[in-house]
Fold this sequence. Notes:
About 25% of the residues lie in helices and about 35% in strands. By secondary structure, the chain is α+β, with helices and mostly antiparallel strands. The protein has a single domain, classed as Structural Genomics Hypothetical 15.5 Kd Protein In mrcA-pckA Intergenic Region, Chain A. Strand 6 and strand 7 (about 60-65) form a beta hairpin. It is globular, with a radius of gyration of 10 Å.
Amino acid sequence: MKFKLTNDYIALGQLLKACDVVSSGGEVKYFLANCPVFLNGEKEDRRGKKIYAGDVVEADGIRIEVE
């Protein structure tokens, strides 16, 4: 799936919520602790990590290309 940024960046937790990987912001911390999430091929577990255009996030079998 593709995600179009409206600002310079989006936090990882906000991206996961916006793409319906998690249903609420409260679930993000639990999700990151229990499901592997990869940012550009490297494991990432910080919900506040800034995601920029060109980044690729993979989580729970979903690939998100940020534009």
